[in-house]
Design a protein that fits this description.
15 helices, alpha/beta, 46% helix, 14 strands, 7-stranded parallel β-sheet, 7-stranded mixed β-sheet
């Protein structure tokens, strides 16, 4: 692929999150870098304006501008043929991303995105896994807040337990702690799209309840585990917990990581994720609020009402709000034989999760694919199974994330 004109193309660069990714890449790729990259999207005018803005950082003049339409497969195929790595922020991905993934899988082009649409990921794997394996394309979905902190946090705490005691945990608990920020308009649009589609399709509803939906073909599922819908007291953390809205994607990504890591954590491995609360009353209120919200958006009138108050794709907080945001997640790896030897880790981010942190995580994932020898063959991977050992230090150095061991409370 040395004859391809670009090492990296960012597609969807003029959207709200896309611009943030472009700014991060421009800051990371200095004028003397050998990495050849371009920004792409629908509007040449908007792309030129973005290029001009990025030139203020000293990198804009080295960035090419390419146009492509998400509903024009030929233009997407040309993008994929032109680069070694393609990074996409154009969602909802189930509506706008399928042709691009197909093109990358066919052309041997590495790919990463921000999707949290678990059913679409499953569809892409089923449709294009064989093609990606044949071409050598490494396809890595969910490289933002969904699901890098959960996926790499689990990998980190598992490796820490192995280094300390020579074993992996059969169960890891993921718990969301203090957070300031909001979900992106694109994430909300994707969630509303999934809810609308599930309301019309009983088979899709069944698939969304399957915690092993992303398991490789032919692999038997692990132990049955239901999604959390109400308040639950976690004796390990000595805290009440409530359902976490992103668990539906994060839990399934982590399970796929275990499978792709040749079941290093065991075929009975279990990962569950929930929100830490200060009291049972708070956990109950959050659970009821989440349930009411899901019932509201399950109907067409409810979705239309919700869309009046929620951010739309292309909208988001200003720089001050993004930089004032933060998040923290905890991961507890249980020793399989001696509970008192369990290991706990904390993952922190210094920007709001939906925009500031997500954009930098995706940018670093794209650079990792472009610059590092990640050592996996073509196919559909998760962030942890494809590049955890190389991506984690990148995130700590360049994306404001930290991974550290902490004492149990």
């Amino acid at each position: 692929m040395d004859d391809r004109p670009y090492d990296l193309i960012l597609y969807g660069a003029t959207g709200f999150t896309g611009r943030l990714v472009a700014e991060h890449l421009a800051a990371r790729i200095d004028a003397g870098s050998p990495l050849r990259w371009a920004i792409a999207g629908r509007s040449d005018t908007k792309l030129q304006e973005l290029r001009e803005t990025l030139s203020e950082s000293g990198a804009g003049n080295a960035i090419d501008v390419l146009t492509a339409e998400s509903d024009d497969p030929a233009s997407l195929h040309e993008l994929a043929r032109s680069t070694r790595v393609l990074c996409s922020t154009v969602g909802p991905y189930a509506m706008h991303g399928s042709d691009l993934v197909e093109s990358c899988a066919r052309e041997g082009t590495d790919y990463c995105d921000l999707t949290g649409e678990v059913h679409w990921i499953a569809e892409m794997i089923e449709a294009h896994q064989e093609s990606a394996q044949e071409s050598g394309a490494r396809i890595v979905h969910s490289c933002g807040f969904d699901s890098i902190p959960s996926d790499l946090g689990t990998w980190f705490v598992q490796e820490s337990l192995r280094e300390a005691h020579g074993v992996y945990a059969q169960r890891v608990r993921g718990r969301v702690g203090k957070t300031r920020g909001s979900a992106s308009g694109g994430t909300i649009a994707s969630m509303l799209g999934v809810v609308a589609e599930a309301g019309r399709d009983a088979e899709l509803r069944r698939r969304l309840q399957d915690k092993y939906l992303l398991y490789p073909a032919g692999e038997a599922p692990g132990p049955k585990q239901r999604d959390q819908f109400g308040p639950v007291f976690d004796s390990c953390f000595s805290r009440w917990t409530a359902p976490f809205v992103m668990a539906v994607i994060n839990e399934r990504i982590v399970r796929r990581s275990n499978a792709l890591l040749e079941f290093s954590w065991g075929r009975d491995f279990n990962y569950d994720e929930s929100l830490l609360c200060g009291s049972r009353a708070q956990a109950l209120a959050i659970s009821l609020g989440l349930g009411a919200g899901m019932l509201t958006v399950a109907s067409s009138p409810g979705r239309r009402l919700a869309q009046r108050f929620l951010p739309s794709p292309g909208e988001g907080p200003d720089r001050a709000a993004r930089e004032a945001g933060f998040f923290e997640l905890f991961f507890h790896a249980e020793h399989p034989e001696k509970p008192d030897l369990g290991v706990r880790a904390r993952v922190r981010g210094d920007r709001d999760p939906g925009y500031g942190a997500t954009s930098r995580m995706l940018g670093e994932a794209a650079l990792c694919l472009a610059e590092d020898s990640i050592g996996v063959d073509g196919g559909f991977w998760t962030p942890a199974s494809a590049m955890a050992g190389m991506l984690l230090p990148r995130l700590e150095k360049n994306a404001g994330l930290s991974f550290e061991l902490v004492e149990d409370d």
